[in-house]
Amino acid sequence: MTMKGGKGYTIADIEALPEGERAELIDGELFRMDAPTRTHQELLMEISFEIKSHIKRNNGKCRVIPAPFAVYIKKDKRNYVEPDIIVACDQDRLEEKGCHGAPDWAIEIVSPSSIKMDYERKVKLYREAGVREYWIVDAQKERVTVYDFGHGKEATAYAFTDRIKAGIFEELYLNLSEMDF
Q: Phi and psi (nearest 5°) for 58?
């Protein structure tokens, strides 16, 4: 792929990446993604499992989908992300190859190379796109930052030992210190 530089990339450039290479696109700017760590993947599995179990126990219709899964967040050609976990309650947004529009809940698990992306760029993108809730899970700091955009709340930081309420579900609380990772 020819590197254009700046903000001239589109989803066609994402689709042209060599097999196995992943990147995200925010307002036409391309950001390559590093391979996740074991801790990252174990957290992803544990959190996904807890959310999925809650939905099943309550006969919910929402879907939990872990990365890599395409999210065409603004329904344009200049924005494409792969959140670590999405929860989508509107089935019409989902197809085999991705989610078209904002998921209800996006969760990012921080990697050393994704700090600025997760804490800055994606906060702005997810808020603008209509994501109802955004969590940033930082294993190194043992902290979860919760943005409850759907209720107009500012960021709240929690320790892994806290019981963290999921804003989009009435009775779902997660305590990451109880998870096996």
A: -105, 15
